[in-house]
Structure formats: C-alpha cells, structure tokens
Amino acid sequence: YTKDLKKTKVIGKVVRAICIMDHPIPNTNNVSSIQIILPQKQLNRNSDIYVTMVSSEHAVCAKGLYIAIVSTTVETNNPEAEIEPALKLLGNILEMFVSISDIHEPINDAKSENLFITKSYDATSHFESASLDVLAIYEQITGEKLDLNIEPSEEDDEF
C-alpha cells in the first residue's frame, strides 16, 4: 500500500513454495508440524533455507493433508533451483505454488511524516525479524522500548 508512494526500496527477493502433500515430511516421526532450517554453510549459500510444515491439527487444511512452506532469500537467476534441496526432503508433493516476491524496506523519514512502515516479510519462517521490526517501530513511535517482561500483579494471582 505504500509502494506507489515511493517510501520503500527493494533490497532483495524471496522465493516461497507452498506445497500440498498427503503425508508428513519423511523421517520426522510423523509429526503434525515441524520447522526445519537448512544451514547456509552446508548448502554453500549466503542464506538459510526454511521449511515449515503444518497439518489439519492446525485447521489449515483438510484431514489427511499437510502444508509445507519452503522459503529462502534469492541469490541467483534461478530461484526455484535454490529451494530444491528443501523440496527433496518433502517427498511426494501433490500440488506446489511458487512465488517470488520483492523484499522492501522503508526509506522515508517516519517521524516527520508520521508514517511508520514495516519491512516486507523475509524468508524466515519463525517471524523473528518481523517481531523485531514491530518492536523497533513501537520504539520509534513512543520513544520507549516495549517491556514484555511484565510481572503479574496481586490481582492476577487471585485468578
């Protein structure tokens, strides 16, 4: 929504594959959800490859189906080939949807414009960078760090 305002710049691309399967990821003890990170150094890459799998236990697909999402930061002119090591882990894939998206970061003067823009989602599957971005924007707006270490009050102890 801010792209047309020229308040962000593209800093890279991310490739994502959403895969529908009729089985959990092989060799994972038939778990209903899992996160796997393929380390960059083991793959001779600059970025990790992320795999997340969820199932009907998470109310995201029909019973007996599994959804795996594979993502990484694009480093070559062949993004789909970059996620191949992760796709090989999945076993048979019934359907796959691949997208390549720009990664944007804000370039505006947020305080003077009173327009605070988050960065695009990166390739990580655990939302750590998105959470840190929200905390940074909170601090920009309020001038204070958000303290998430709130001690319960005596009233809370009664419940």
Automatic annotation (TrEMBL):
<dbReference type="InterPro" id="IPR036188">
    <property type="entry name" value="FAD/NAD-bd_sf"/>
</dbReference>
<dbReference type="GO" id="GO:0015031">
    <property type="term" value="P:protein transport"/>
</dbReference>
<dbReference type="Pfam" id="PF00996">
    <property type="entry name" value="GDI"/>
</dbReference>
<dbReference type="GO" id="GO:0016192">
    <property type="term" value="P:vesicle-mediated transport"/>
</dbReference>
<comment type="similarity">
    <text>Belongs to the Rab GDI family.</text>
</comment>
<dbReference type="InterPro" id="IPR018203">
    <property type="entry name" value="GDP_dissociation_inhibitor"/>
</dbReference>
<dbReference type="GO" id="GO:0005737">
    <property type="term" value="C:cytoplasm"/>
</dbReference>
<dbReference type="GO" id="GO:0007264">
    <property type="term" value="P:small GTPase-mediated signal transduction"/>
</dbReference>
<protein>
    <recommendedName>
        <fullName>Rab GDP dissociation inhibitor</fullName>
    </recommendedName>
</protein>
<dbReference type="GO" id="GO:0005093">
    <property type="term" value="F:Rab GDP-dissociation inhibitor activity"/>
</dbReference>
<dbReference type="InterPro" id="IPR000806">
    <property type="entry name" value="RabGDI"/>
</dbReference>
